[in-house]
Write a structure and sequence with these properties.
alpha+beta; 231 residues; Inorganic Pyrophosphatase; 5 helices; 5-stranded mixed β-barrel
């Protein structure tokens, strides 16, 4: 089998097999100015969904504990990972040396005036800022973005332009969505709200962390396939 035949067979595999949302989809060619996002949850969901890391299928994480809702699409940036490089930035910014990464892909909220009724889909988004969130000592940043070409919000190019009431809604959701009724101490805290440039830095670091953890997944898969067919 020559290289031309291998390329044709590789393309056929792409057509017949679904890519893993975390490992098999690119974050986009214009990262960090523009990113591809896999959406797991939309504002109307009363259940929190997330991907199963092993299979890539969507699963139920938990019912929402309260009646408040997230006024944004919510998901993650593929081929990102929050570990040592992300945690290092958080340690520098907070002065707390006990912080580690949460070991998940980088979370992202996407603001849009459009009513998107379900998750499990891909969208393009423009990062404009983020929340530096800690979940029991783990770095759990939430990037804030605008849906690409959104007719109403597309002029918001930095989080400073977003109305404070909307920022407060987002913060309230993340500060309470994991707490149990009657719990006296919040599990999560937001130490900083940061702008576009710092969001870009977090995204770059999460890509570095992914590469350190998983390597070149697509390249390794292609090499393994090449070896298997004996080319």
């Amino acid at each position: 089998m020559n290289e031309e035949h291998l390329s044709k067979l590789w393309k056929m595999m792409d057509l017949h097999f679904k890519s893993h949302p975390w490992h098999g989809i690119s974050y986009g060619e214009d990262v960090p100015d523009e990113v591809t996002v896999f959406v797991e949850v939309v504002p109307t969901d009363t259940v929190k969904y997330e991907i199963d890391k092993e299979t890539g299928y969507m699963k139920v994480d938990r019912p929402q504990k309260y009646s408040n809702y997230l006024p944004a699409l919510y998901g993650f940036i593929p081929q990102t990972y929050c570990w040592e490089s992300v945690a290092e930035l958080v340690r520098v910014k907070t002065g707390r040396q006990d912080i580690v990464g949460d070991g998940d892909p980088l979370d992202i909220c996407i603001l849009t005036e459009r009513n998107i009724s379900h998750g499990n889909l891909l969208v393009k988004a423009i990062p404009i800022g983020g929340f530096r969130m800690l979940d029991k000592g783990e770095a759990d940043d939430k990037i804030i973005a605008i849906l690409k070409n959104d007719e109403v919000y597309q002029h918001w190019r930095d989080i400073q332009l977003v109305p404070e009431t909307l920022i407060s809604r987002l913060k309230h959701y993340f500060l309470t969505y994991k707490d149990m009724p009657g719990q006296s101490k919040q599990r999560c805290e937001i130490t900083h709200v940061y702008g576009r440039e710092e969001a870009h830095s977090v995204i770059r670091r999460s890509i570095d962390d992914y590469r350190k953890k998983f390597g070149d997944v697509q390249g390794n898969l292609r090499q393994a396939f090449t070896d298997a067919v004996g080319l």
